[in-house]
Amino acid sequence: MALSIGSTVELLNGVLMPRLGLGVWRTPEGEQTEEAVTAALNAGYRSIDTASLYENEGGVGRAIRESGIAREEIFVTTKVWNNEQGYDNTLNAFRNSLERLQMDYVDLYLVHWPVAGKYLETYKAIEHLYEQGKVRAIGVSNFLIHHLEDLMGSCRIKPMVNQVEFHPLLTSKKLLMFCRKEGIQLESWRPLMQGRLDIPLIRELASKYGKTPAQIVLRWHLQQGVVTIPKSVRKERIEENADLYDFELAPEDIVRIDGLNEDRRFGADPDRVDF
């Protein structure tokens, strides 16, 4: 699979989404967020993933404006948080996100978690924003198969993206195959397992390919067609995470990494959203 940092996937509605982006979860608002986003844009990234929960949409927006790169060349994702869900609340949350970002639209707007009793109405509001042209693509985050089936039973516009925790210790094969079948793009958060990369097989493959363990894991994501958004605030690490395009994992090594699966989550269980 010939890939480059400019490689994209085509979503259900034809919008092109970069395969690699920068996540800014837990990156403090202000200088640190702006420096991380600037480093990513300078390294060739064209996708930035934030959320209202992260409280750093302002810094993301400032860095993008000051980059000198045309707004339409950068794919910006944000999300509606759990206590903002519901139809009217979501519309208000979106207005607040746009104000903080200082943007006229976002490229992708997601339901952050499947809050029981609320996510269907939340998604209806997001469909409305899409039809108004305020959002170029819409989707969900942390939805399991049964959440997606429930949503698709009532929605007018199929979710284009499902952003979930996904990594070698949580390969979620059934969810991955379901999303592929439905044309929903799977996107991975926490792809590097919070830095838990000291795994013998990953170290072995890093030596084999002359790459870092992080690069092996990120390339594994890309070769499965999964969009990924590794988070870092260090310029050298941001650049390292993008140096994925001068090698390709052999099919048998993809299978070996798949075999590391433990169904292990480092984040919350989507069936237990009580926050």
UniProtKB/TrEMBL annotation:
* Catalytic residue list: Y54
Q: Where is the NADP-dependent oxidoreductase domain?
A: 19-262
Q: Which sequence ranges form a coiled-coil region, renumbered to this chain?
A: none
Q: Which domain of life is it from?
A: Bacteria
Example GO molecular function: oxidoreductase activity, acting on the CH-OH group of donors, NAD or NADP as acceptor
- The feature of type site (Lowers pKa of active site Tyr) is located at K79
> Which residues, if any, are the signal sequence?
none
Which InterPro entries does the record associate with it? Answer: AKR, AKR5G, Aldo/ket_reductase_CS, NAD(P)_OxRdtase_dom_sf, NADP_OxRdtase_dom
Keywords, comma-separated and alphabetical: NADP, Oxidoreductase
Taken from the record, one Pfam family name reads Aldo_ket_red
Q: Where does substrate bind?
A: H112
**PANTHER family given for it?**
2,5-DIKETO-D-GLUCONIC ACID REDUCTASE (PTHR43827), NADP-DEPENDENT OXIDOREDUCTASE DOMAIN-CONTAINING PROTEIN (PTHR43827:SF3)
Q: Which family does it belong to?
A: Belongs to the aldo/keto reductase family.
Q: What name goes with this protein?
A: Aldo/keto reductase
Give the organism the record lists: Cohnella faecalis
